[in-house]
Amino acid sequence: MMQIRVGFEMIYDCPQSTPMIFNLNVHFTRVSDLVGRDDLVFDPPVPMAGYRDSFGNWCTRVVAPKGRMRISADAIVNDTGAPDVIVPEAQQIPVQNLPEETLLSCSEAGIAKPIVYPKRRGSSLDRRLPPSAAA
Predict the structure, then answer these.
(1) pLDDT above 80 for 23
(2) Is residue 74 pLDDT above 70, yes or no?
């Protein structure tokens, strides 16, 4: 057994108050492996609402204030150290060719365009997306 430290820091500079949805917590299938919690920390503090999406991911909804906002998390996860399963026949499909079931309309969240949800690969814990990925 080994312990892996997971975490991130993202800084946004919003020209106006901006609704955001973050999907950054450890997947629910690995929560029992957490040593402590993987809470998101917002600076400045903002009201948060949480919900689970149709894939079981924990989502955190906020309205970022105008100006600079820092989001971070830091946690320790127990892990066997076994590598993720390699699927040599896996393909990367261009967004325009993705099947509709991988898209989720978020009009109820005030988002006019569909959001693409990545398919989970194994038990990968490291998600490193640039802030521009939300655009």
Answers:
(1) yes
(2) yes
Is 105 contained in some domain?
no
Separation between Cα atoms, residue 22 and residue 96, nearest integer Å: 23
Residue 2 one-letter amino acid: M
Q: What is the pTM of this model?
A: 0.67
pLDDT of residue 134: 45
Whether 118 is covered by a domain: the verdict is no
Residue 27 domain boundaries:
2-81
CATH code, domain carrying 52: 2.60.40
Count Cβ atoms below 10 Å from residue 58 Cβ, excluding itself. 18
Establish if 65 belongs to a structural domain.
yes
Instruction: Please report which confidence band the pLDDT of residue 104 belongs to, taking 50, 70 and 90 as the band edges.
Output: low
Tokens of 81: 């150290």
Instruction: Describe the chain by its helix, strand, coil percentages, rounded to 5.
Output: 15, 40, 50
Q: Which residue has the tokens 């076994």?
A: 82
> Residue 14 domain-assigned?
yes
- CA–CA distance, 55 with 53 (Å, rounded to integer): 5
